[in-house]
Amino acid sequence: MADETASFGLSGTRLPETFGYALKRRLLGPPLVNEQLSEERLSRPLALGVLSCDGISSAAYGTEEMLIEMVQVVGLAAFTLILPMTLVVLAGIALVVLSYREVVSVYTRAGGSYVVARENFGPRVAQVAAVALLIDYTVTVAVQTAAGSAAIVSAFPQLANIPVIGPNILIFISVIAVLIMCYVNLRGIREAGRAFALPTYLFSASVAAMIVYGLIREVFGGGLPMVGKYPGPIYPFGHTTEGLISIGLIYMLAKAFANGGSSLTGIEAVSNAVGALKPPEGRNARQILVTQGSIVAFLIAGISWLAHITHATPYLAGYPTVLAQEANVVFGSGGHFMYFVVQAATALILFTGGNTSFSGFPYLASFVAADSFLPRWLTKRGHRLALSNGIIVLTVVSLALLVATRAVVNGLIPFYAIGVFTGFTMAGFGMAKYHKRVKERGWRRRRFINTTAAVYTALVVLIFAVVKFTEGAWLIVIIFPVLVYLLIRLNREYRLEAEILEGIGDRRAAGVPPRQPNYRRRVVLIFVDDVDLATFAAVRYARGLRPTTMRAVHFVIDSAQAETLREQWVRYGQDIPLEMIDTPDRRLTRASLELVSREAEAPGTQVTVVLPRRGYAPLLGRLLHDRTADKIASVISQVPDSAATIIPFDVESRVHLLHARSAAQLAAADQAQPGAGQVEPGTVRNTEQEQPTAAGRRPPRGTGAPPAVTPSGTAYGTAGAAANGTPNGVTSIAALEKARKATIEGRVSSVEIRPVENSCVFEATIADGTGSLTVMFYGRTHIPGLEPGVRIRLDGKVSMRAGGPAMINPAYELLAKDG
Questions:
Q1: What are phi and psi of 216, to 5 degrees?
Q2: I need a labelling partner for 438 at 20 to 30 A (CA). Which of 10, 222, 460, 793 fits?
Q3: Contact (Cβ atoms closer than 8 angstroms) between residue 61 and residue 412
Q4: Beta bridge partners of 775
Q5: Cα–Cα distance between 141 and 334 in angstroms, integer?
Q6: Contact predicate 795/812, CB 8 Å
Q7: Which residues contact 305 (CB under 8 A, 6 or more apart)?
Q8: What is the pTM of this model?
Q9: How many angstroms from the chain centroid is the CA of residue 125?
Q10: SS3 663
Q11: Relative orientation angle of helices 443-467 and 78-106, to the nearest 10 degrees
């Protein structure tokens, strides 16, 4: 990989790795190139395991969450009420599955409530769905890892007795799990793998076996015993057994219903990845949704029935879980093999379900950012082609939630359902509007299904916001509209910036290119605060602009320093006028703004300010230097008809070069004259003068670098060697010495569009590891497929120019990208 990267750079020139990049490379592995970003299509069995783990895993805590609310009010009656309450939840699962079957039937490439809302309500309203899904993904990580941690501690309760971390064992395990998920996803882990499907099938099979075996024991084996007492306090039992029409009981049932709604989470995951399925995508997605919904319904119904029989009671600490208590009763003592299988499968699917958010959240955030409703840096791929910024944001927020709630699932539920069910509601109403607009065959039936599901889920949102308001839902109720407003406000800012940067107005809609301003007078000002190599580099650049007027400017803050600068300016023979401007208040930005504004007031004048900037080591530079050039450039950019150009001068690299030359000269002196390496006190060696080679000559430019390796693996060294290493009929660029017809093969390293005399030219630079060639297509502004990173074969006449070999309008063939 390093050799491939080197083949695109300058011969013999390599960018030194920073400490941060070296650490990233060591932790995450070598960087991946864009060609390695491939898409794997999922079969139905594999997709069911990969995409359904979030939805199926919610069965592990759905029944327990309903019991938590009911036992505190009605006591033992909760184990009777759990069955009808479960039926209400199962009806919701059926409605959501039927609703999302319509979603995946229509949106077979990119589904989910965000796309449905965007296509049917517009991008601004769609931000409601975007915020809902982003909250859902974030809380899912916290809920799933907390539940997975509880499953582990339920199997091994002695973990709670570990000194120091014992009382916070759930937080400890959850935080470690989230950090591991973050790390493996930053490395570019792929969800589409059998390893991620295994927990889904293992959990489904083991819990189904527990339910079936429990049913057999209950019917044919004399019945199941009640759950025994475990260490630790349980949720206190209430004693209200009055009529179920009392306000208190209705309120309790509403809270239990809202908690049970957590069992519906994750069902929509299939709609967010329809494009990853094998064709026909829509039909496969519908079948997966129905299968997933059936499994979830069976598991929740079975776990609730076992809770009804065994009276498994929730514990305040979050463990042992209701599912663990049931498995212990059904399979015997805690040492039974199947008990540990159930607990292991539960922990695995919960952690895997949490890991799905590390794929869903960054992709959704990238999707919304591409629509200019979130910061653009969320669209950038990282070192290993993962959307690293989204992964890091998700990790930080989910860790904060886990710590704040002490990793107890019931403490996280108030943050959960509002986001989940708002997404369901947006998808249902969006599809209802779609059916009314399109009026396809059977549209009334489909619209009724989507509308019913939307009303059901909207009712859950309303109930949850009311009954869970004081338990933490108030935070989501407040944050939700604030986030929607911020996303819309951010989009407005992006649109305003785009209008200013394009500066085209109505001419854009008419297809007319923007008119370039014609300046009669060009003024270049070089801001100097010292006479050194950085200043001379800025002067050389300023001369190349060929201005009408050019002068150096120094803002006088210290009179003695200004006088020293004037003497140095005269001594070094600069023929550029030096202007001294008094700045008694030492506000360089204000003085710069006033000077540039005065110069730019003259009609037909453009002002360019050239600012030398000395670059130092990142940390040391921040501590020792205030980056005044950046501040001045920021102010000057606000003045019309003016521009600021910063000329960087890397002091750190010059220091390293000076040390390297000094070490090389000392080594050469030691070899040529034994004992000469010891320098007498007070002796100074000249380390700036370039030393001749052993033959007494300086090495010719462009030689001495090791042979580069092209992405195809062919090694090119000198021109003669390249002729032997290139494919048949292809000439290496280094072998081109005169104008002739040739066939060249290489990779596009850069492209550029330039206007030329009432036309334009599409220009590309081609590199093959031995050199680079410029190819120009006149009259073209775009060539489909010809972009940086693509391999290309050119056939045409080569002309030799001052800048190197070039081809004009050659025949070309785009080659397959290297994997």
A1: -65, -45
A2: 460
A3: no
A4: 764, 807
A5: 29
A6: yes
A7: 83, 211, 215
A8: 0.68
A9: 24
A10: helix
A11: 130
Strands (E), 433-565: 521-527, 549-556
Amino acid found at 67: L
**Burial bucket for residue 129 (CB in 10 Å: 0-12, 13-18, 19+):** buried
Query: Which helix H or strand E contains 460, and what residues bound it?
Result: helix 443-467
Reply yes or no: is the peptide bond before residue 755 cis, omega within 30 of 0: no
Place of tokens 């940086």: 788
> Can you give the pLDDT at residue 304?
92
Using only C-alpha atoms, what is the Rg of the chain?
35
Cα separation, 465 vs 661, in Å, equals: 70
Which pLDDT score is estimated for 701? Answer: 35
Name the token pair of 418: 């509002």
Q: What is the pLDDT of residue 333?
A: 58
Ranges of residues in the chain with a pLDDT under 50 are 1-13, 33-37, 191-192, 243-244, 675-724, 819
- The structure tokens listed for 57 are 């895993």
Torsion, Cα of 590, 594, 595, 598 (10° steps):
170
Place of tokens 């029989």: 309
Reading the block at residue 378, the tokens are 């969320």
Q: CB atoms < 10 A from the CB of 788, how many?
A: 13
| pLDDT (0 to 100) of residue 524 | 93
Side-chain half-sphere CA neighbours of 156 within 13 A: 13
CA nearest neighbour of 40 among 168, 191, 240, 203: 191
pLDDT of residue 720: 36
Q: Token pair for residue 252?
A: 């309790």
Count the alpha carbons within 13 Å of 34 in the hemisphere toward its beta carbon. 7
Residue 202 is classified by DSSP as H
CA distance 462 to 66: 18
| 244 closest CA partner among 119, 466, 410, 70 | 70
How many C-beta neighbours within 10 Å does residue 289 have?
Answer: 27
Token pair in block for residue 317: 């600490």
The 10s digit of each residue's pLDDT in 254-265 is 777 777 777 777
Q: Would you say the C-alpha torsion 294, 300, 306, 308 has a positive or negative sign?
A: negative
**H or E element, residue 151:** helix 123-155
- DSSP assigned state of 383: T
Q: What are phi and psi of 315, to 5 degrees?
A: -110, 145
**Beta strands 791-801 and 772-778, pairing class:** unpaired
